[in-house]
Amino acid sequence: MKNFLDTANFNEIREAASTGLLDGVTTNPSLVAKENRPFKDIIKDICGIVKGDVSAEVTATDVEGMLSEGRELAKISDNVIVKVPLIKDGLIAVQRFSAEGIRCNVTLCFSPTQALLAAKAGAYIISPFIGRLDDISQTGMELISQIITIYRNYNFDTQVLVASIRNPVHVVESAMLGADIATMPYGVWTQLIKHPLTDIGLTRFLEDWKKVQAK
Length: 215
Ligand code: E4P
What we know:
By secondary structure, the protein is of the alpha/beta class.
């Protein structure tokens, strides 16, 4: 499973990229708004250090508006994936982008029927938001399972990107289900590495080793 960061913050991305384990980045208008910098500059800077997929979202809600914004975003770098909302005009735009060779991440997916239509439209990535479903007392991970089954049944190439991840358990469950990508906030990314028993164990090993050196 590929691990993406869900952020537009350059410092977080640089830190994660320095491990060699960052596969890509997803952004959205809310994340970009926190940065107080021009949108295209942010995407350009991210693409300068991340060679994997970098999702940049259109804000138009009509087909022609999405096409014109998306074409501009795709020009920034070869690894820009145009993020399009899962609405009727979005699905029409995805088919047009697909015919032009522009790859799309279809976002704000909350149901298996939406995911089925996105795949039929030619989405490169589908982004089901599991945390926001959990927030309203639905089990987000069930949606991931349904989408993976549907895509396998019909051999769709569309990659399943688990979005709106809130904790490392979501990452584990995504990997157990065979999701293609998990995108997560920087805080969750750092939690993937850490375990208190690792820290305690390492401290003890090093203390014992010091005693050997002292002899
Ligand atoms: C995905 O691409 C979205 O940017 C993101 O995962 C939304 O997460 P949130 O529900 O934490 O805002």
